[in-house]
């Protein structure tokens, strides 16, 4: 059971973020992060895209979920749960070209593969009722008929998901399209995914798992390496930031507050670029930024800091070392991609998120998840407005909401319009204790049962999930 002490810690931590106005964390100027001794000892591992088998207009992959011994901390070996024996695999897909993945489960626990942010049919969404049991396999088909965006693959089994993700089962899935390819944004080796999370290790390199011990996970990993350094050229880079941690938020600042450009969120490109000096990244979220290292010159070192560390932690996430010159034909256009018009809402719903200290459950509208209960029944092509209320004022706990199937637009936070960095399409939204937000969404194409839930995975494991039956 989640203890009151843990809740008070969460509340104290949340208060720091809650005190930071949205205009600051999405497009504003922060203070200076506290200095700390540099821990950078290992290079960043930049993932190479997996090579598919191509047939009949499809790309085919086989992903085997299995344990593997890998080097995470220098000089030690760590038993992880992996796809094909590696951490942080990368799939690059093209809009209009479907991907088929055969998931083979060689773990001793179930696994339900979910493409987070994917617009996919029910049978390929990773519903807990379709979890792949140990020794079994299943085909997942992703149509890729949606806008280019940064997605990720993770477990959605009924009880094993939080530990599976914590132990390493997170893959990045980049969907490209012609519209985005025609923009002069950085490409190729200058388009880099940074998958961020935290972990707790024993002295011998063993991963330590406790669903409640979020504050004990003091090692920050980027692409599976502890606080690495990345050698870059003096030119622009597109950095895709993916938070795969169970509970940890990042409040990211480059150097002493250097400006960078926010260009995309969960559902792809923003309507326009947003110059910023700080960016908030919650579990499950993706943000894309462009950093111009050409401004600094060869020899400069820039630290990416998390200005929201737990007690006793250093702030460093990773370091960028500018080591060479390079030509740079890339640029960031003044206009990127307009958000779609979802129409006029004809249905309104309210979702109250709360913690019950008596039972240790996290609830949506006073109910814990029940796989045999349908909570709401949306209809396809009907625009809805959802009001998300965080009622956890007693303990100050943050919560988020992630609906499956389609992205949404943020209408307002506490009655105020969203900041420019939330003007695009989203699929995960965090709401602070005592606050509320409204989103607009429209489910399209695929009927069936889909989930909506908090993406702080301990909360999800303790009941904060609902089920919707979408009909035609």
Strand content: 35-45%
- Measure the end-to-end span: 40 Å
**CATH superfamily of the largest domain, please?**
Cupredoxins -  blue copper proteins
CATH architecture of the largest domain: Sandwich
Q: Helix share of residues?
A: under 10%
Q: Let me know the average pLDDT.
A: 92
CATH fold-type name of the largest domain: Immunoglobulin-like
> Helical element count?
5
Pfam families: Cu-oxidase_2 (PF07731), Cu-oxidase_3 (PF07732)
Family: Belongs to the multicopper oxidase family.
Protein name: Multicopper oxidase CueO
Domain Plastocyanin-like: 67-174, 351-470
Short description:
The protein is mainly beta and 472 residues long. The chain has three domains: 4-42 and 183-324, Cupredoxins -  blue copper proteins (Immunoglobulin-like); 53-181, Cupredoxins -  blue copper proteins (Immunoglobulin-like, Sandwich), CATH 2.60.40.420; 347-470, Cupredoxins -  blue copper proteins (Immunoglobulin-like).
How is this fold's topology laid out?
Elements: H1 4-18, H2 22-25, E1 53-55, E2 58-70, E3 78-83, E4 90-94, E5 99-105, E6 113-116, E7 137-142, E8 149-155, H3 161-166, E9 170-176, H4 178-181, E10 191-199, E11 219-222, E12 225-226, E13 229-233, E14 236-243, E15 250-254, E16 260-265, E17 268-276, E18 279-281, E19 286-292, E20 301-306, E21 316-324, E22 347-356, E23 361-364, E24 383-390, E25 399-403, E26 408-413, E27 425-426, E28 429-431, E29 436-442, E30 448-453, H5 457-461, E31 465-470
Parallel strand pairs: 2-5, 4-9, 10-14, 13-21, 22-24
Antiparallel strand pairs: 1-2, 2-3, 5-7, 6-8, 8-9, 10-11, 11-12, 14-19, 15-18, 15-20, 16-17, 16-19, 20-21, 22-23, 24-29, 25-28, 25-30, 26-27, 26-29, 30-31
Subunit structure: Monomer.
Keywords: Metal-binding, Oxidoreductase, Signal
Domain Plastocyanin-like: 67-174, 351-470
